[in-house]
Amino acid sequence: MEKNCFKSKIWISFLALLVAMPIFVVALSWLFPEHELWAHFSQTLLPSLIGSTAILLVGVGVGVTLLGTILAYLVVMVEFPGRQWLEWALFLPFAIPAYVLAFVYLGVFDYSGYAQVWMREVLGLPGFDIRAGSWAIILTFVLVFYPYVYMMARASFKRQKINMIEAGKLLGASPLRVFFKISLPLARPAAAAGLLVTLMETLADFGVVSLFNYDTFTTAIYSAWGDFRSIEVAAQLASLLVLVAFFLIYFEKKARGQAKYYSADVSNKKPYHATGVVGWLIALFVFGVFMLSFAMPMLQLVIWGWESVGEEWSAKYIDLIASTSTLTIAAALITVGIATVLALPGHCKQDSLWLKGVIRLATLGYALPGSVMAVGLLYGINQISAINMYFGGESINHIIFGSIALLLFAYVSRFMAIAYSSIEASAQQIKPVFTQSAQLLGASRLRLIWQVYLPMMTPGILAGGLLVAVDVMKELPATYLLRPFGWDTLAIQVYELSAEGLYERAAVPALIMVVFGSILMLIFQGLDKKSSKTS
């Protein structure tokens, strides 16, 4: 038993440390400090960057937690008009990249946009600057990122025992009291996992903050790299983001303590039925979120795309779709496979601080901006090649640079946190009694994984696969820097057209991305329903 446990620790440590390699590369950048440039940053930029980043994190964190959890609870626990189609429709904002939603809202609500023109000329209202302050960028992030919390909280709510809620109702507890005392505590690990992913996504974003002219640590990273040509300072700033991500994970775990939240059954029964005015108000609220986060931006993209499709469409889009699909599917399968291995319950991990530490380290890559992740990998491979040449070998740069393998590795390292958080949340709901019973019956570790763990972790695995696939499809900086020659993707096409100010033409590849992402979500939604029925 101890021998098998030792082998398991070795393999898990190897996988986790391999995924975390870019983190080490970024950390090594501190061996080459640039004192003058750091003095400039600390005196002119850092104080405001810390304040603006903190405001953004708090605003987005509170917003996605409230919105995602409330929406998940409503569609799972309450029967109201339109609930069935709204339940899956709320996934659709995943398909819209954050930078696409940002330029759509700026195009519509900027001072020269038709919404403000109508307000001034028809209603006689004064105009406003959508870029002033932080409210608009926080709202944009909330609308595009709430599905992280919604998806994970929804999976948790669906696995809660309805008889516990019914018991609360019989005792005379109000729906709000049942929600805060029973449902919310049970869903807290899943919602917290979604929140962590959201905060790390917010930390690493560059497209939205640059469009809104909102300075954060990420814009400083690009400034250090693009304006001052210092990859070392850029990497050092990125390492601070990794440190923030580490503390976010640590404090969430500390707040959770040793609490475990187990559940076994999946039920489609709704304990509450909202009828009349209350039911329609709930439906209006949920539909309003869907309109703001998906339907309205989608309609604007369709209008722009219809006006420019004749000019933009060509046979090259077949290659763009093929490249995007290949990278998305391959990266999702590899990432989910490794994350499942890392998240599997097991006696070897229960008391191993080392394994817990390296696994957490492997999930910190999500805090790295894609460009810094890419440059870190290129820098690391270049150093390995230099060492190999020093000992008489040959350079390996020409083999690895511009390869699909390096790009897929960047995806895995960048998005491991998404898959792991979702899968771990499902793994934590597996009662220890299942493991103990299987071991008493003489089940091997492999059989225990195949027949007990994997079926019960399926909702989290599917959710993690969906999140990774959609994020890989939308990833821009890492793809732009690491892709093989000729491997352009839809995200790169959107970027190149947007950089030239051709928003109407950029709507064409953006629409294809949205459709592609929507198909992915419908497939995973169907698999999720099938899994729920057979659980």
Walk me through the structure:
The chain is an all-alpha fold and 535 residues long. The protein has one domain: MetI-like fold, CATH 1.10.3720.10. The chain is built from 25 helices and 2 strands. The longest helix has 37 residues. The protein is globular and about 75 Å long. The two termini are 31 Å apart. About 1% of the residues have low confidence.
Overall pLDDT score: 78
Q: Tell me about the largest β-sheet.
A: 2 strands, parallel
Strand content range = under 5%
Query: Whole-number radius of gyration?
Result: 24 Å
Q: Look at the structure and give the CATH class.
A: Mainly Alpha
Name the CATH homologous superfamily. Answer: MetI-like
Number of helices: 25
Task: Give the termini distance in whole angstroms.
Answer: 31 Å
Strand sequence of the main sheet, in spatial order? 1-2
Instruction: Compute the number of structural domains.
Output: 1
The CATH architecture can be given as Orthogonal Bundle
Helix content: over 70%
Total beta strand runs:
2
Low-confidence stretches: 261-266
Overall structural class, as computed from helix and strand content, comes to: mainly alpha
Principal-axes shape call: globular
| H/E series | HHHHEHHHHHHHHHEHHHHHHHHHHHH
Instruction: Kindly report the CATH topology.
Output: MetI-like fold
Question: What topology does this entry show?
Answer:
Layout: H1 2-19, H2 21-28, H3 35-44, H4 46-77, E1 78-79, H5 83-89, H6 98-109, H7 114-121, H8 135-158, H9 162-170, H10 175-204, H11 207-211, H12 217-226, H13 231-256, E2 272-273, H14 276-312, H15 316-343, H16 347-350, H17 353-362, H18 370-390, H19 397-400, H20 404-427, H21 432-440, H22 445-474, H23 477-482, H24 490-499, H25 503-534
Parallel strand pairs: 1-2
